[in-house]
Amino acid sequence: LHARYVLQLLSETRRVLKEMPNITHLSTSYSKEITICGDLHGNLDDLLLIFYKNGLPSEQNRYVFNGDFVDRGKNSMEILIILFAFLLIYPNDLHLNRGNHEDYIMNLRYGFTKEVSKKYKV
């Protein structure tokens, strides 16, 4: 994705996230399910497999991602682009919890900063 569109996506995602509460309470009933995922660590194949097996996020197919989206794998940017796009489309049905790998120091240590610099040169 061209850097211009990535910046637009990041800007809009930031705006939406700032409007959301720090703590989100979710409930389920017999008619609704929530898929809970964690620790993708930059592995795009894992995210695509989850969507293949469980379906794409929607109002009827809710997801919670419990952090550690980035680092270690080579496709952290692609994961963020996909998750942020779904968050903008379904802000009440896709939830992103920050993990310890969504931290500046962790990004430096485990490769996300390097990946972003490589894919989107300054």
UniProtKB/TrEMBL annotation:
Q: What is this protein called?
A: Serine/threonine-protein phosphatase
MF terms from GO for this chain are:
metal ion binding; protein serine/threonine phosphatase activity
**Where would one find coiled-coil regions in this protein?**
none
Name the PROSITE patterns for this protein. SER_THR_PHOSPHATASE
Organism this protein belongs to? Leucopsar rothschildi (Bali myna)
Q: Cofactor(s) for this protein?
A: Mn(2+)
Reported EC number(s) for this entry are: 3.1.3.16
Q: Which gene encodes it?
A: Ppef1
Reactions catalysed, semicolon-separated, are: O-phospho-L-threonyl-[protein] + H2O = L-threonyl-[protein] + phosphate
Query: Per UniProt, which keywords does this protein have?
Result: Hydrolase, Manganese, Metal-binding
Q: Where in this chain does the record put each Serine/threonine specific protein phosphatases domain?
A: 97-102
Q: Which InterPro entries match?
A: Calcineurin-like_PHP, Metallo-depent_PP-like, PPP_phosphatase, Ser/Thr-sp_prot-phosphatase
Which family would the database say this protein is a member of? Belongs to the PPP phosphatase family.
Organism superkingdom: Eukaryota
